[in-house]
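Re: beginner question about structure tokens

> Can someone show what the tokenized structure looks like for a real chain? I only ever see the sequence side.

Sure, here's an example I had lying around. Input first:
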Amino acid sequence: MSQTVRTRFAPSPTGYIHVGNLRTALFAWLLARQNDGQFILRLEDTDQAREVEGAAGHIIESLGALGLDFDEGPIRQSEHLDLYKDYAQQLIDKGMAYADPYTPAEVQAFREQAQKAKLPFLYRNNRPINPPVWDGSQPLRFKTEPRDWEWDDAVMGHLKVGPETQDDFILIKSDGFPTYNFAHIVDDAEMKITHVIRGQEFIASTPNYLNLYQALGLKRPILATMPHILGADGNKKLSKRDGAKDVLDYLRDGYLSEALVSFIATLGWNDGSEQEIFTEEELIKKFSLERVSKSGAHFDERRLLWVNGSFIRELPLDELAKKVDAFWPPEATTASAEYKLAVLGLTQERLKYFDELPALTNFFFTNLPVNMTLIDNNKQLKKLDHQEINKLLEQTRASLQDSNFSVDDLTERLNQLLETTGQKPGTLFSLIRVTTTWAPASPGLADTLHVLGKEKSLERLANSLASLNSKS
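And the corresponding structure tokens:
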């Protein structure tokens, strides 16, 4: 592209941001990085009543946590009120804006008249004949010139609407702050934004924006409308109200930022191949607005778990150890770094996010209580009577007593026990696994025994035997 690509992310600081907001930011960031352009952060804080303390900092932290660095900003709209008044004056001078003198009661009366006539309420049908001079104490409205509009959207394709979609809208409120509908047009022009990427909820207002671009004599940027991200049931847009999580909560739970970026990027976008997981470098190289789907994308948290687990498995073990350092169970506090690294090596394949590390590893650091449901609910083990369990555990203890507890030796001895006892692996190995861990699940048996070590493994077998005998 001959023109420098400049994109922006322009959230309102009214709370935390979730994946729907971040997809817009990510796509704008990717487009800028792909074209050696600039990515700008703008805080649209003109609705002062809705602004939430700390929200701006949260937005900046969220972008930083995902590696979405911005080249300019954060720019606050509230710091440029004079700029919007200058543009408003241009419209007043052209006869394209007027002071709105009506009270809420008068506007309601206009609505009721339209309802009685079975017509849609349009403000432009009730324009004041002689509006007062605008002095800032009343709202300033845009005097639209409704017409047929056709435009090309980089995602949605060719769109067209009729004049019935356009109405007079407020440019500047009586509190002196501009509305989104006005301020973002001014800002995008002043910041030389080349691509406006935003959600589907704004598409109905686009004809009004086109009118405003024309009235101000501005070249409009490339418009790219993102379809909604839908909740898991696919029935409605994902929202905070329906449980969309703060993106920082995912990071606090131990999701990798790289995994979140890859997952969010593929919500409604693919590169035309079967590839499902992308590195940041691959996304920058392959992303294009043309490959964004026109239909809504489903937010599937199970898929996010799969993506995150895939990234975890690709991490070098020493790097993973640094990332999970704060997630170990309390019982691991006194364990050596070498022992924790061995445990992590066994757990890495099964770890989907770091916050589940305690549940997956606590048995390595403490003796869990005997839980007979692990035997009673096992299809194979519940067939064994007390005497059979006793005999199998005694045989296991005797065999392992002479082991050097290397993985190879343990594997050989466990296989010999299968021949000696005549049991199936699903029965014997399950029994040994349960009675040495008392955990619902664990890694491969020989590997688990090797990391637990000879002393701890034999001690647990003895304790389990004693406990089972005491319950008989």
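Each token stands for a local structural state, so reading them left to right follows the chain. The mean pLDDT is 93.
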